[in-house]
Design brief:
about 325 residues; alpha+beta; Rossmann fold; OB fold (Dihydrolipoamide Acetyltransferase, E2P); 6-stranded mixed β-sheet; 5-stranded antiparallel β-sheet; 18 strands; binds adenosine-5'-triphosphate; nucleotide-binding; Mo/tungstate-bd_C_term_dom; ATP-binding; ATP hydrolysis activity
Length: about 325
């Protein structure tokens, strides 16, 4: 694995407040890394330090193996796209995309070729002569991306780039981002608070909370095995049950089934239905169950089996296969 950038014990304090707390992080070259976590966890602060917009209180940031902790942003060779696209309104789409190339004094003929190629890459070749304000949000987003990519950055940094788009477009642009990253082989670091976005896009996802890294790895490894309750909650796990030996287990609502008999392996709990919410293809069945230790735990089962007819007040059994019961460290 070639390393594009590295955080070594990087801390950022604002007065008494520690926004980023001694993180170590490796950004692999040619891959897409997401920094994922709730608001305030230090994602943007980390990205800004990587970009050079803020200097760590302590620790080092290496880019291509070179200590770049104090290198100014314009000398880091990075492309960046923010939540607000920050396009130049008085320039055409092509001029926006060519802006960084002009600054770098690329000859006009070559610049024209690179701009055309980059606009084709993001599917906007036909809008080269338009002004940004004539474009939809999704199109403006692509222009901002094209402008950042045109300079062939060592690292492409994206801060919540899709969060201003409506839900449908956002999902479409995820696929587009993946395609563009695969076609260009760029190293991308993306900040998001959206777990679905991180799961779908990442080669490596880094789950953060309160300035620390809780877990990192490929989505296929992190998702089925969250390191602790905080990561599990952030990834949409519910139904936390403590067993007699003190271990904490969790099951996703879609893996809890209504059954007529206890299953031998896995988890089975009995309880009373509190609520049934109809949601079209599925129903959310809320149950107050006995955890086997005399305590009541509230469980939610996402039931897709139309034959199940649970009603509030019914006593039912909820069960999950062993394969879907995740044991947490803490
Ligand atoms: P969000 O998604 O809301 O941007 P985030 O995970 O990106 O969240 P950061 O923007 O990195 O979080 O902020 C982390 C914490 O540091 C927050 O509590 C924020 O208020 C604080 N913070 C960030 N920048 C500064 C600053 N310049 N001065 C003081 N506090 C700051």
């Amino acid at each position: 694995m070639t390393v594009a950038a590295e955080f070594q014990q990087v801390t950022q304090r604002f007065g008494d407040f520690t926004a980023v707390d001694a993180i170590d992080l490796t950004i692999p070259a040619g891959q897409l890394t997401t920094l994922l976590g709730p608001s305030g966890c230090g994602k943007t602060t980390s990205l800004r330090m990587l970009a050079g917009y803020s200097t760590p209180t302590s620790g080092r940031i290496l880019i291509d193996g070179v200590d770049s902790t104090r290198t100014p942003p314009e000398r880091r060779g990075l492309g960046m796209v923010f939540q607000s696209y920050a396009l130049f309104p008085h320039l055409t789409v092509a001029e926006n995309v060519g802006y960084g190339l002009k600054l770098r004094k690329m000859p006009a003929a070559e610049r024209k070729r690179v701009v055309a190629e980059t606009l084709d890459l993001v599917g906007l070749g036909h809008l080269a002569a338009s002004r940004p304000r004539k474009l939809s949000g999704g199109q403006q987003q692509r222009v901002a991306l094209a402008r950042a990519i045109a300079i062939r950055p060592k690292l492409l940094l994206l801060d919540e780039p899709l969060s201003n788009l409506d839900a449908r477009l956002r999902v479409h642009m995820r696929a587009e981002l993946r395609r563009i990253q695969a076609e260009t082989g760029l190293t991308v670091v993306l900040v998001t608070h959206d777990q679905d976005e991180a799961l779908e896009l990442s080669d490596q996802m880094v789950v953060m909370r309160e300035g620390r890294i809780l877990q990192q790895g490929a989505p296929v490894d992190v998702f089925p095995a969250p390191a602790n309750r905080l990561v599990a909650e952030f990834l949409g796990y519910e139904n936390f049950v403590t067993s007699a030996d003190g271990t904490l287990r969790t099951v996703r609502p879609e893996h809890l089934n209504v059954v007529s008999e206890p299953t031998t392996a896995g988890l089975t709990l009995e309880g009373v239905v509190v609520d049934v919410a109809f949601r079209g293809v599925d129903r959310l069945v809320t149950v107050d169950a006995d955890d086997g230790l005399g305590r009541t735990v509230r469980l939610t089962a996402d039931v897709r089996d139309g034959a199940v007819t649970a009603r509030p007040g019914d006593r039912i059994l909820l069960s999950a296969d062993q394969a879907h019961v995740v044991t947490l460290a803490g």
